[in-house]
Structure formats: structure tokens, C-alpha cells
Amino acid sequence: MKKVPVFLLLCLSLALLCGCVFPLQHVSPDPAPVSVSPSPAAVFNPSDFAIPAPAADDTAEAEESSAKLAESRSDPTVIDDPKLAVFWYAMADAQVFSFREQFGPVLEASGLPFREFDAENDRYRQLDQIRDAVSGGWNLLAVQLVDNRSADEAREILELAAGIPVVFFDRMPDSTLFEDLLSAQPGNVGLICTSPAELGSIQGKMIGDYLTAHFSVTDLNQDGQIRYTFLTGDRNDSSALTLTQRSLDSANAALAGEGYRSLVYLDEEDTLGFQADPAGAWSSDAGTALIRSDLEFYNYANGNMIELIAANNDDMALGALTALQAARCNLGDGVSVTIPLFGIGATPAARMAVSLGQMTGTVDRNTAGFAEAVLATVRGLAAGQSAASVFSSLAASSDLFSVPDGEIPTLYVRPLPVLS
Description:
Layout: H1 6-21, H2 46-49, H3 59-72, E1 84-88, H4 94-110, E2 114-118, H5 123-135, E3 140-143, H6 152-161, E4 166-169, H7 175-178, E5 189-193, H8 196-213, H9 215-218, E6 227-232, H10 238-257, E7 264-265, E8 275-276, H11 284-295, E9 308-311, H12 314-326, E10 341-342, H13 348-355, E11 361-364, H14 367-382, H15 387-397, E12 401-402, E13 410-413, E14 416-419
Parallel strand pairs: 1-2, 1-3, 3-4, 4-5, 5-13, 6-7, 6-8, 6-9, 9-10
Antiparallel strand pairs: 11-14, 12-13
């Protein structure tokens, strides 16, 4: 066997070493990174924009440096070639399906290049998708957060964006935890959402108006009060609790205005006045299980039948409908007893149930308004406007949007009632 020359062995070893130290990189099919004028930089590195922590022996200098960095980034810049990446928390979710039905046509008609990403309810998957999108040249980000209970995910997203405009929509981060995130961010970060208080108030008014118009029919045992239960998505979610309380307050106010007594909870000894999904998932399965369990005690035979059901979302309301129909109620046949049933979301299934007389009403979160607001906002940000100025213009030109007082740029999309 012939010996391999030493020179060839050295070359082969060097090639293998290079392959280990410098592996081949995957080339993304996304557009090449584009420049954001007036800065010519084409690649965004989060570390380039990070504010260094103050040194223990030089705090004043570090704070001054951080302030200068924040000031230097306070003015949004014009994006020459805007490309929008839309990040959904879970495309399998019924509410997200409704959102996408509106977003798709609006974005396609705009001519703005866009791409959608599905996080599948996985926070880390969403962060990876945002990282890949930024490195792939997508320079406008619209994010429906997977985790909106803390500011951690929002903080990481802003670090990954590194100056690229970010619009958080629908599932907004907790504002009390979000305020500090904007201190060193440019004016191109904003929130587009619905107000839980407004959603609850609209649902409650629908309930109150319905009951005052149909009180004697709804009051099955004719005791002068409506016995209710309320299905709450998550007992630890401030939005769910706000929805629930505002809905009850608004319904009771409408009843009081017409001289009727307030709603009474099924279990009068229970001070909470609602039932929550044990898993905090706002699910239809939980709605079914909770109402099925209720009906074992609160029924016609016991003379204390449930007389009203409301839920934080349509999934839980539709789950309740399944349990009611198993008890031969809410069949939509014009003969069976119909227990007033209200949801929030105006999903296609809920709209169908309302049209069939199986559900009484739902609240349309105005997904078309969301789509229009997100598109108008990213266009304004791409043109170099601040989120605050874009939001002010939208609110001034439409009754569908409002801008609350506060330091965080926020746009509220007004929901709409849907009744049978």
C-alpha cells in the first residue's frame, strides 16, 4: 500500500478542522437584510443596542451613557423597503382564525410584503421565529404575544428587534410591567388592543338590555331575580377578572335602571361570583364540564334552574352550550327552553349559534379594525412617524379607535355587540 504524502495529510487535517470550527451556515429564503435610513447598517445585532449596566464605581457616568443612548434612539427612522412579519401565538386558536380571516385580505390588498409565523403557543418558538425574521430582513414586526402575563417575553422581543419597529397587538403585555421597557426604546414601539373593561361593559350592557326586555320569561321560578353563573377564563388573569366584573356591573346597572333586582349567583354563599377554567385555558371543554356539573344541582327538578350564563370568551360559551343542549335546552327549535347565553369574540361558530337562536349574544372584538390599525401603524412607522403620532391620527379619524392617557403608546380598538 502506497504511503500518503505528508503534505496531503496536512491539507486533509486542515480542511476537517475548518469544517468543525466554521460550519456551513443555513441560507434563509427570506429577503436579504435591508438598510434602515439614515443608518446604513444592514445587520441588526441586539448587543449593538444594549445599554450597559452601570459600574459600581462609576454609576453617574453609566447613567449618562444610557440616557444618551436612549436619546439617540428616540426618533424613528424611515424604512426604505418595508417588509412585515406577523407573529401569531397559535393559529389553531379559534380567535386567531378569526383574526387571520381579516388580516389576510387587508394585508394582501395593501401590497406590503408580509409573512406569517405560528408560535403554536410556545414562547420560545416565537422568540426563535422573531430572531430568524430579523436576521432574514423582515423590518416591521407585528406580534401577538404567547406570554402576556409578564414583561419578560416583550423585553426579549424588543432586544431581538434592536430598533426595528414592533407593534404588539391583541395580547398586550401587562402595562404596569411594560413601562420600563420603553425607556430606552425608540418611538416605534406601540400596543394595539381592546380594553378588557370596555369588552366587559359592552357584554354587560347586552345582558342587561336583554334581561329588561325579557325578564319574566328569563325568571323561570318567578322569584324576581335572575340566577346566573359566569365562566371566567383564568382566575389569575387580570384581564379575565376585569371582563367578568365589568360585565356584571354593567348588567346590574341596566337592571337597576329599570327597577329590577341585581343578578344573584348560583351559590349565594360563594363570594367570588364566577367559575374559572381550572387550567386557565379559557377552553370549551372547561365550559362544558363546569355547566354539566352545575346542572346536577341547579335544575328544574330542584326549582333553582340556571337562568343566565355568560363567559369571558366564545369557546367557553360554546362549551356551556354543549352541556345545555345535553339537558335539552337551547336547541334553537323554538320549543325548548333557551337559557340566555353570552360570549365574547364573535367567532364563526358563535355567530352561527347566535343566528340559530342557541346563543343570545357575543361581542365582536372588531378584528377588521385590528387589521386596519396594524396596517396603518406599520405604514406610519415605516414612514418615520412615531407610534404615538400614528395612534393620535387614527383615533382622530375614526370612531373605532381611541387613545388612552398614559406614557405607553396604546391604541384601543372598539368592540361591537352582536345579538340574535
